[in-house]
Write a structure and sequence with these properties.
mainly alpha
Length: about 70
């Protein structure tokens, strides 16, 4: 459970960093506005989810014995 939490934490922090670096270059509709549910929130979530699955894919065999 601790590993899953750390994987999620890494994905969310890195995903949000990537999104906020890309945000000025995104179209206005894909920019998140504070305290609103909009397309920017969905773009941010998609980046974080992609990173989470990438981290899980990279670490998939490290927990199983050989």
């Amino acid at each position: 459970m601790k590993r899953n939490f750390l994987d999620a934490l890494v994905a969310v922090l890195a995903g949000n960093a990537i999104y906020f670096l890309l945000m000025p270059h995104l179209p206005a509709v894909a920019r998140h506005r504070l305290f609103r549910e909009d397309w920017g929130l969905l773009v941010d979530f998609a980046i974080c989810a992609t990173l989470f699955f990438a981290v899980k894919y990279v670490r998939r065999d490290k927990g199983s014995p050989s």
